[in-house]
Amino acid sequence: MAEKVLIVNADDFGLHPAINDGIISSFEDGIVSDMSVVACGSAFEDAVSKLLLIGKRSVGVHLTLVGERPLSSPDDIPTIVDKESGRFFAGYGSFLLRYFSGVIDVEDVRRELLLQIERVEDAGLEVTHLDTHQHLHLLPRIAEIVVSLALEHRVRYVRVPLPEEDLPLNLRGVLFRLSRPFGRRLMRKLREANVCFADHFYGVVCGGKLDKGSLLSLLRSLPEGTSELMCHPGFKRDGVEELYPWGYMWETEVEALTDVGVKEYIAQEGIKLSDVESAVNC
Predict the structure, then answer these.
(1) Which domains does the chain have, with CATH numbers?
(2) pLDDT tens readout for residues 22-78
(3) Residues near 225 by Cβ (< 8 Å), separated by ≥ 6?
(4) Which of 12, 79, 89, 255 has the greatest CB tally within 10 Å of its CB?
């Protein structure tokens, strides 16, 4: 019987100290096996110091083009920032409108994403994987940039957010159904470049709301091969809910990811928890 390998990857590391603490807690005391850092996040330095404190020197980059303040000067990337605030546009909706209307200059995207990767490398960390905030690298022109940056920086794994869960009939579910051709295209590009991705991807349906029940249900149906589970642990303190009013159940995720019963089930079923670096075998 083939092995079941599970990468439990925590997104949004570096956005806020309360999120950083939830991720570190879920890594040290739970089943989180890797994480992706927001290089332009206001708590990036805090995230790096916490990583080094626990002796982890590899991390993914959660490439970000919405919601935050860019590393680039706004004058250098005018098509992807709001002219008045100098920040990225608020969310994927604004980005998609500008992308499909042809307003976005992909060189602006490349310039900013390169700085984000370089900032993580300059912090003394090894970049082992790439993914994007709100999955914007599903878009073909953004995908091409991410794949090329992976090759340039010898990053051997890129997330393919093509969920295998039953998608709900809401906006999120509809958007992911529509994005499936883009996901398959991204897979082809990664194969051509000899860049790895997981056999299976989970975490969209319960994104920001992963609880013990949904986690155990996922584990019981986990297929053979390598699976990536995206998660969002954190703690509700220090104004995190006001800054990020997404309705995320950060602490519920911490509880699920550190639950004794969950850890016992994984051990009992012989599921191998792995960071991205160890799981990569292409």
Answers:
(1) 4-279 (3.20.20.370)
(2) 999 999 999 999 999 999 999 999 999 999 999 999 999 999 999 999 999 999 999
(3) 2, 4, 5, 198, 199, 200
(4) 12
